[in-house]
Amino acid sequence: MAGMNIELADTRPAAPEDILPLMVEGLAFEAGGKQILNRLDFRLEGESQSFIIGPNGAGKSVLLRLCHGLLQPTAGKVVWATTAEAKPSKQQAMVFQRPVLLRRSVRANVEYALIVRGFRGPERRRRVTLALEETGLADLAEQPARVLSSGEQQRLALARVWALHPRVLFLDEPTAHLDPSSTRMVEEIITRIFQSGTKIIMTSHDMGQVQRLADEILFLHGGRLIEQTSVDRFFSQPKTREGKLFVEGNLLW
Amino acid sequence: MSDLALSFHVALELIIGLDADLVEIVLLSLRITLTALLIAVIVGLPLGAVIGVFRFPGRAAVTVLFNALMGLPPVVVGLLVYLLLSRAGPLGDYGILYTPTAMVVAQSILVIPIITALTRQTIADLHVEYQEQLQSLGAGPLRMVPTLLWDGRFSLLTAVLAGFGRASAEVGAVIIVGGNINHATRVMTTTIALETSKGNLALALGLGLVLIGIVVAINGLVLLTRFVAARVEG
Questions:
Q1: Of A194, B145, B148, B217, whose Cβ has the fewest other Cβ atoms within 10 Å?
Q2: Does B232 contact A144 at a Cβ distance shorter than 8 Å?
Q3: Is-contact A174 A186, C-beta < 8 A?
Q4: Domain B3-233's class?
């Protein structure tokens, strides 16, 4: 597997300037008169797995979508280290809680993502084959994607983004609907994607998972960033009262 | 044997014996309807998909318009096409009134709104489901149109078959612009209307049976499509 990862890293198109670190400045989002996110400021470095955690309604998913560009902030901005020439939007991908798979074969789903980003010919075929092998879906390549189990569907969603070798991968509770063994496989794949040089920005409600994967924690509560700290520190000695209550499972509102 | 039973018996003989007149009429009907359907598919699928995907001012009004046009009375369409194509009309110089071409034009006008409206509905629903994911992958609205058309293929086939059903069963428009001329513009529905009024029930019944057969076959196809779709899409 390690050999594969090196091969993946080698095939990344001549690396332009890095789009990371990511700077988020005074970010706010309002919907239907409700303040979802309130003036967030933080910086994400390029070489870590950053986990956004917090109770339901904290604004985690909205934050991911704002950073990824699926939503436009009502105030503030998301600033990538390089801009226009490096095309930050082409160096990111996202995996959703419930993946939307095209009504086509497993292989065609991975191909589609590559086609949209302009990959062609042998390079495209190579990436498809590799991504399916890495996610253990090679044998299911010709199956209709929609008949896969939910675990397999999420692995296909990961194969689809892995084939793109994004610099940044957003994941919105990718294992929320999965059984333990599927969760395990998905976590392993995320780790390998990370090891191949992709920045991971992920939300999760599974504190075991957070401790297994995360390097740093962004703790969100009520639309505010309460603290940003290393994972060890957050779980052993959180800086804030809210953080402490959350870790203990006592943060009720 | 009663008149009705006799007519029915002769009708079956016409069908089984592939009566030349009957076959000619059935084939012309299919040719006209399928040509109109092809035109309506070429116009209606992309048009419906674009309305379903793109956000533009007046989108709701366009949607209402096409939904309303689905219910266009065929005789009114026949009248309008007649006015367009008649000697004094703006397109009179082409001399296509009372030809199968005029009938294709009229049927296209009837079927385009059906396929457009049903396509818009299907694609708009799919768009809700796919939008975020496709945008994340980097697909703009223009790229989404063919993507959603392909992913909605089974539902869209139902829309196309609905259009075919409408066109093949329609009589008001084609009788006005076609003129129901023997060996030239007589199709199943217009022949049934004419022969019934003349009292030639056998040919009318024979054509009626063929028409019903076609409609049943179409509905069978719709059902089969759903079955296949369920297998393929899970």
A1: B217
A2: yes
A3: yes
A4: mainly alpha
